[in-house]
Design goal:
This protein has 221 residues and is of the alpha+beta class. The chain has helices at residues 90-103, 143-152, 167-179, 184-190, 195-204, and strands at residues 46-59, 62-74, 79-87, 106-107, 119-123, 126-132, 139-140, 157-161. It has five helices and eight strands, in the order βββαββββαβααα.
Length: 221
């Protein structure tokens, strides 16, 4: 009576294997419920891979393949950055992009869960329009713009991409718009005014003073 041969051990991404599966030792740390992003940049950061491009270089001996990844990283509290990593493998390219994005993070001026005012960002052929929205609207955006706004912590906003669909130009145009956001108080302070004085001046300043019409003498009969 022959015995049934035992099955080989499971490896790779299956449960219990040595890969990044649910039971592997290299598995990613568990994400908290409702966490945004993909968890590559750490538990305290939100990361999104916007675009991955495969680059082919033809050489004498054949073709060399490499990958470039465009990554967005933010803390959900007003700081966000982007980076482009290049490598022979996709995971390495994403890792390089995350490290570059962490080094180029900027601070964005927010007003509650939205932005202070409407603004349009430009870069090359890319144009992105951002408009504040009321509570409960949500993030009305798609693609790269949505990834940036989620990473920066905006929860209510209206957007429209008006130019090219190139993800690199869309990302840079969105960052140009975010850099140009300012609160009214900071603008008044830079001009050396206060909110009360500027309001009074705006209301009291007449557009033009009315000039009394000269009296026309009555015609004699």
């Amino acid at each position: 009576m022959s015995s049934t041969p035992s099955r080989p051990p499971r490896f790779g991404n299956r449960p219990g294997g040595p890969g990044r599966g649910p039971g592997g030792p290299n598995a990613a740390p568990p994400r908290p419920p409702g966490a945004l992003g993909e968890g590559r940049a750490g538990l305290d950061l939100i990361d999104h891979v916007v675009h991955i491009n495969r680059v082919t270089k033809v050489v004498k001996g054949g073709k060399n393949f490499s990958f470039s990844a465009l990554v967005i990283v933010g803390d959900g509290k007003g700081r966000v950055g982007y980076g482009a990593g290049k490598a022979k493998e996709v995971p390495t390219a994403i890792k390089k992009g995350i490290e570059m994005a962490k080094k180029t993070m900027i601070s964005v001026t927010l007003k509650g869960t939205t932005i202070p005012h409407a603004v349009t960002g430009h870069y090359g052929a890319g144009r992105v329009f951002l408009k504040p929205a009321a509570e409960g609207t949500g993030v009305i955006a798609g693609g790269a713009v949505r990834a940036i706004l989620e990473a920066v912590g905006v929860q209510n906003i209206l957007t429209k991409s008006l130019g090219t669909t190139n993800p690199h130009n869309v990302v840079k145009a969105t960052f140009d718009a975010l850099r140009n956001l300012h609160l009214a108080a900071s603008i008044l302070k830079a001009r050396g005014r206060t909110a009360g004085a500027s309001t009074v001046e705006a209301v009291a300043a007449p557009a033009a003073e009315a000039v009394a019409a000269p009296e026309i003498p009555a015609e004699t009969k």
